[in-house]
Amino acid sequence: FDNALEFLTQGGYSLAHAMMMLIPEAWAGNKLMDQDRKAFYEYHAALMEPWDGPAAVAFTDGRQIGATLDRNGLRPARYIVTDDDRVIMASEAGVLPVPEERIVKKWRLQPGRMLLIDLEKGRIVSDEEIKSEIATRHPYKTWLANTQLILEDLKPVEPRALRRDVSLLDRQQAFGFTQEDTKLLMSPMATTGQEAVGSMGTDTPISAMSDRSKLLYTYFKQNFAQVTNPPIDPIREELVMSLVSFIGPRPNIFDLVGNSRRKRLEVRQPILTNGDLEKIRSIGHTEDRFDTKTIDITYASNEGAAGMQGAIDRLCERAEAAVAGGYNIIILSDRQLGPDRIAIPALLATAAVHHHLIRKGLRTSVGLVVESGEPREVHHFCCLAGYGAEAINPYLAFDTLLDMHKRGELPAEVDANEVVSRYIKSIGKGILKVMSKMGISTYQSYCG
Questions:
Q1: What is the CB neighbour count within 10 angstroms for residue 171?
Q2: H or E stretch including 420?
Q3: CB-facing half-sphere around the CA of 133: CA atoms within 13 A
Q4: How far is 233 from 241, CA to CA, in rounded Å?
Q5: Interatomic CA distance for residues 340 and 297, integer angstroms
Q6: pLDDT per residue over 263-285, tens digit each?
Q7: Are 44 and 74 in contact (CB under 8 A)?
Q8: Are the C-beta atoms of 81 and 124 separated by less than 8 Å?
Q9: What's the pTM value of the predicted model, to 2 decimals?
Q10: 58: which strand partners?
């Protein structure tokens, strides 16, 4: 964090501006926030993900000294101002003995707020004054209007069809779907809009010891915050939680005057319908917009299991070549799966490409989207997000639910579109729950 703050200030940002970028307020769900300030935060969200703590951070450059609290406000930070111009801030009041009659003001840092002391001017600058001045320094609303594309606002596009020589049942079997997946997990999600309630604990063998074939996701276990990072309640703390994701290359972080015309593709949540994915695939290419490359993550079945390593190597090479060729959104797709094509596990393919591009210094030049028939549980989506997927299209999960709806296995009063919407809603709730167990508030901070 120290290095990032110094990097930004050396690049031309003021100390307070850099801190507002690194530790922003909760803006996405705050309907009462001033529009100029909201535009400031939304514009900078594409430049850098939040460094949420929970954290109370003190900072100085020798001319100004201040402190800020992150959006959750879970760290205590109390301060007093005395009549001889001393400011004392600590995690508790009364750390230093100060006579009560000398205290002019006694207060605490609130979530997302900043305390700043200008040593050159010899005064305390209020949170409102700092942020109002910085948020109106440049026309962020205009810059946002010129560069922002919101996926949900784009014109609908007809989804592409699957291979007709592969049935739904064949696909389900290839991706390891079970009756438990469809009846006990997916059906309640599509019906109620939330995950089914289950008992704690599992007596199934760990995947490495099991004699049955298991999905790669089952080799990973969810972590949870202990001691330093208190978990968050994603329901009652909904205001600070966000599923907003940005797809595509990062804009120039040191464009301080808005010269860059790099477009930003924003999605309100990372689970894409088939139609949403086609919007991305056909979004078009101009000098400053997007060029999408779909990379097949299947390989010839005659190569067998031994051919997977070579297939992964070729996949990474194709991804690197795509970035070198000017493509700035890569869609990793296993739609070509069939009798003659074996799919690389989506998690393995995503992680391989993500880390290969990081090693080559290209990851911030491209967005990663996953189009796979494999994910259907919340844990699957969280694993993909953790390994760099900025958005995910679980096309086979949608096809399975629509087939169940057609066969009358889901309530008749819920139409087909609502089935998909409720399933997406339940996945979103589940992702928030998993993130919150780690004390993470935003999908941007969790991704990768």
A1: 22
A2: helix 416-437
A3: 9
A4: 10
A5: 13
A6: 789 999 999 999 999 999 888 75
A7: no
A8: yes
A9: 0.91
A10: 67
For the chain, residues classed under CATH 3.20.20.70 are 150-446
**Distance in Å from the first CA to the final CA of the chain:** 17
Residue of 441, 445, 414, 394 whose CA lies nearest to 192: 414
pLDDT greater than 90 at residue 317: yes
Angle at which helices 15-22 and 35-45 cross, to 10° = 70
- What are 426's two structure tokens? 């339940």
Torsion of CA 413, 419, 425, 428, to 10 degrees: 150
Q: Which two tokens stand for residue 190?
A: 């599509």
Q: Strands, DSSP E only, in 83-178?
A: 87-90, 103-108, 114-118, 123-125, 148-150
Superfamily of structural domain 150-446 = Aldolase class I (3.20.20.70)
**CA torsion through residues 207, 212, 217, 223, sign:** negative
> Distance between alpha carbon 281 and the CA centroid of its chain, in Å?
20
How many Cα atoms are found within 13 Å in the side-chain-facing hemisphere of 215? 24
Tokens representing 292 are 């999408």
Q: In the prediction, which pLDDT does 245 show?
A: 94
Amino acid at 448: G
pLDDT reported for residue 35? 93
Pick from 21, 106, 5, 94: nearest CA to 58: 5
Tokens (6 digits) for 309: 């390593």
Helix, strand, coil % (nearest 5) of the chain? 40, 15, 45
Q: Which pLDDT does position 287 carry in this prediction?
A: 47
For residues 5 and 263, what is the distance between their CA atoms, to the nearest angstrom? Answer: 25
Q: Which residue has the tokens 């009756």?
A: 179
Tell how many helices (H) and how many strands (E) occur in the chain.
15, 16
How many whole angstroms separate alpha carbon 325 and alpha carbon 307? 27
Amino acid, single-letter form, for residue 132: S
- The per-residue pLDDT of the chain, averaged, comes to 90
pLDDT per residue as tens digits for the range 167-195: 999 999 999 999 989 999 999 999 999 98
| N residues, the chain | 448
> 357 and 343 in contact (C-beta within 8 Å)?
no
- From the number of C-beta atoms within 10 Å of its C-beta (0-12, 13-18, 19+), residue 258 rates as middle
